[in-house]
Amino acid sequence: MAKKKDKKSKEPKSILNQASLDFLERYLNNPSPTGFESEGQKLWLEYIRPYVDTHIVDPYGTVVGVINPEAKWKVAIEAHADEISWFVHYITSEGFIYVKRNGGSDHMIAPSKRVNIHTEKGIVKAVFGWPAIHVRNGKTEVVPTTENIFLDCGCASKKEVEELGIHVGCVVTFEDEFMVLNGKHFTGRALDNRIGGFMIAEVARLLKESRAKLPFGLYVVNSVQEEVGLRGAEMIVERLRPDVAIVTDVTHDTQTPLMNKFQSGDIACGKGPVLSYAPAVHNNVLRHIVKTAEGEKIPFQRQAASRATGTDTDAFAYGAAGVPSALISLPLRYMHTTVETVSRTDVENVIRLIHASVKGLKPGQDLRYFK
Asked: What pLDDT score was predicted for residue 284?
């Protein structure tokens, strides 16, 4: 006779409902390139609006949902909204288009990719062209670089390109869309870091649906322009001046071929949120999160940064005269490609950990480095 499954061994009930998953797909499929995040930010605000009391939109497009805006003590949870992209840089007389990076776009994956060129007239379809294998010499193989990749939008002259509304400065995004692998992994472009915006929005939803009464103000921050130097976070931290900040972003899963654990640590999708140790990470806030994870039985991993985390944590920690900050990261495979991949279980556990960590904070909590 087969043994009955131990109820205690079952996975926790999913906290993501169908409306959440529908929003995630819409949000990830919508382009939100650095400096041009407005359409994605509108989608995010539309979703989060029922779960907050009010909101802020700063001059460059960072959006903040606020719960208990009248409270003096402020807690921020933050992710960044922008995705890597390209700028139209040079249009040849033959109608081919050369590009410049907008953020850390990967030239190695560009050849044969379909793209959307964003113009004032609307979207223009194009492709990154590349010579066929038949005409390439293996001994002197040319590899893709930022100087030789080019776009073809089906035009035969510069004039024809410009008649479509394309000009130097138009932004270009890859066309790849969201999908689910094996029922348990989310895959698509720009999970870095719109998946973070999704997770903090879900925290707001859970707080609203549980009718939680927070004794402080909670600022749910979706920042712009992280991919070009944490710029949105630099601006919004000065505007909000929170007392505590918990930032979420992605980090490298190192289990796939060609990854170097000596360089990037031993991090795996499916094994839980990643907590970082770094100068910008405030020890007392990190201890609070670790204790929360242990108390809630949420699995987590650890990683060490060097001089900086490379995330908006640095901007919050060193802005506004110093904000005690910590980083909760989501393991992700194939960063800055169009097939970025994360574990659904990890996504849910990051949401749970931020949610529980926020609820465990107390107004005026003494977070001094030492007494």
From this structure: 96
